[in-house]
Amino acid sequence: MLEVSPSRPSGGRWRAVVPVVLRWGLPVLWVLWAGLAWWVEPRQSTEAQLDRDLAAGRVVSYQRSSGWADDDAYWGSRPRVQYAADGGMLTWTVSNGQNRYAAGGPFASDSYTVGPDSSASTGWDARRAAVDDSWQAGGGTAHRIRNAAALLAGVLTVLWLGRLIAGAPPLVGTRWFWFWVGLLPFGVGVLAWTYRELWRPPPVPVPGRGSGWRGFGWLILAAVGISLLVSVARIVFGTTVVPG
Fold first, then answer.
1. Rg value, the chain, Cα
2. How far apart are CA 22 and CA 27, in angstroms?
3. Do 62 and 92 form a contact (C-beta atoms < 8 A)?
4. How far, in whole angstroms, is CA 38 from its chain's centroid?
5. CA–CA separation, 30 and 33 (whole Å)
6. What pLDDT does residue 219 have?
7. Do 18 and 163 touch, CB atoms closer than 8 A?
8. How far is residue 37's CA from residue 139's CA, in Å, rounded to a whole number?
């Protein structure tokens, strides 16, 4: 008599496939995001570099500002420049998509002040007219790269949160533990969750696994440690390698 084994429920197949997809997909998405985000992260520069970029026709967008608006509420968010006609910071985008800024004014020439009521706008227009490449008010490549980086960060976060909330209970820490850890800068917490829960999960739940309060404590301590590490790396390697 021929015996036919029962087919595996589709839900069971999904439960087997989803962890594999996330195990590889989340790190790949993070690498893509990190590369794009690093490329367009504002780099500290000088007014002299702005002159050189103008002379070479590399400047595609420009504005004067008073600083950056970024509350760091979400690791995938990008700093936003605060426009100010008489601000003490110059920000500009070059044709390869990178963003640069020079702070500390007053600057050598008020011709950088741009605005319909600016008496120095003629000087700026003359400098801009000397640029061979076409002027792009929207920032061109830099805006597209920033949008792509934001999209990747959003997809990465949605996939991680979806699995954390709707998937099987985590084994190393509670859902609240990993929620707080997942808020660490640069997506470090999402990578930690991927490694401990998908790549190297324990065979059984860890006794006394991390609670929400423990995860919140790790968020504070690790965030401070990461900030210090980035600051030291910026001093050692410079803002070209470690922008911000």
1. 24
2. 8
3. yes
4. 7
5. 5
6. 95
7. yes
8. 16
Task: Determine contact, residues 113/86, Cβ cutoff 8 Å.
Answer: yes
23: nearest Cα among 169, 168, 201: 201
* CA-to-CA dists, residue 48 to 10, 55, 100, 107, 111, angstroms: 63, 11, 12, 10, 14
Tell me how long the chain is.
244
Which one is predicted more confidently, 111 or 216? 216
pLDDT value of position 106:
52
Q: Please state the separation of Cα 12 from the chain's center in Å.
A: 35
| Across 48-69, average pLDDT | 82
Name which of 177, 159, 158 is nearest 169 in CA terms.
Answer: 177
Tokens at 94, concatenated: 């070059």
For residue 234, what are its two tokens? 């910026």
**β-strand pairing of 99-103 with 43-44:** parallel
61-71 mean pLDDT: 76
Q: Report whether the peptide linkage leading into residue 106 is cis, meaning its omega lies within 30 degrees of zero.
A: yes
pLDDT reported for residue 109: 44
Token reading at 34: 């990190």
Q: d(Cα 157, Cα 165) in Å, to the nearest integer?
A: 12
4 band by pLDDT with thresholds 50, 70 and 90:
very low
- Residue 105, pLDDT > 80, answer no
- 107-139 burial, b at 16+ Cβ within 10 Å, e below that, comes to beeebbbbeeebeebeebeebeeebeeeeeeeb
Query: C-alpha angle with apex 34: 100 to 16, nearest 5 degrees?
Result: 165
Nearest to 41 by CA among 155, 183, 145, 135: 145
pLDDT for 36 beyond 50: yes
